[in-house]
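QA checklist item 7 of 12: single-chain prediction sanity check.
[x] sequence parsed
[x] length recorded as 121
[x] structure emitted
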Amino acid sequence: LGYKTRDPIRGSDSFAAFEEVLAYSKWRQADMLLLGGDVFHDNKPSRRTMHQAYDLLREYVLGDEPVSFQVLSDQRDLEGRRGQVNYEDPHYSIGLPVFAIHGNHDDPTREGGQEALAALD
């Protein structure tokens, strides 16, 4: 997300593609969505990029739909999540769980790399 955001023609392409994936996942009642790396084009995305990502996730991920799978590994090992995945937290209403694997653009070992993905948690 956030590729060529200043370009008047291509600026919204990454968000349109992301929305298409989210909408299709919701329509097909997917059990979960796995993002296979490089969620963001930059490891320090702009505020505009972050806000658009929040808005899309809020629209397609939040909901009352039942989650039909369970994480079997010890969730206490989840860094920064207070010991459980967010869709099992009673204070969240997650209808479409999204899991992201960091890529080289959002590598958590680089400066600022951890904050962008963690902010979407």
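[x] summary fact logged: The longest strand covers residues 33-35.
[ ] second reviewer sign-off
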